[in-house]
Amino acid sequence: RRFTAFLNQSTKEAEYLSRKLMEISIQKKSLLNEQISHFSELVIKLNSLQETITLPYMLYMIGVGNAGKSSVLNSLVGSNVAEVATLPKTWKTDLFFKAEKENNKSVKFLFRDNCPEQYYSTDEAKKVITQEEEKRENSEDLIDKEYRKLAKNFTTTEEKSGLKKELQDKLLYRSPIREVRWALTDLMDSTILDKFSLIDTPGLSQSNAGTH
What we know:
Elements: H1 2-23, H2 32-52, E1 57-61, H3 69-77, E2 93-98, E3 107-111, E4 118-120, H4 122-150, H5 157-171, E5 177-184, E6 196-200
């Protein structure tokens, strides 16, 4: 309880300082801008910590892409709560926890920037995620198209590899969604979610935005 109170006070102070820093007029190319951005991320992390500290212990599923993390998670829960695909497509963190009662807006979306969290029904959440995946796939198709058009101007493998990376940095769509929290109600009487929250993570070998 003492730590929770300390964390709450620290978060309030960090939010106050972040607002004050944002009010300062700073030149666009100032080195201070990057530090202000880091400070804003700290506020997000502190708020997230306040929320998650009351949840059950977290059990993380970690491994390379398409190694079966989601399948293991589904087996532990006893129902198909995590999407399983033939290709690795997990680009966010999915947190699954047991909810006492059903909620019309039972899925919470957290974002990489300062955008406020958003709540959706399960069907709405799946639709949003599908749209984000389509944006990613469309950007990958565009990268392939541009690469085929420009690669003929280069001869060495190193040059072509550099071109591919440049196009990915410039054109690859990276979703602002960093975490999705699913409140589950229709579960077996006895489930691992009685004692743990389960976290499905992006594959270690996949390319993800930032270090999250």
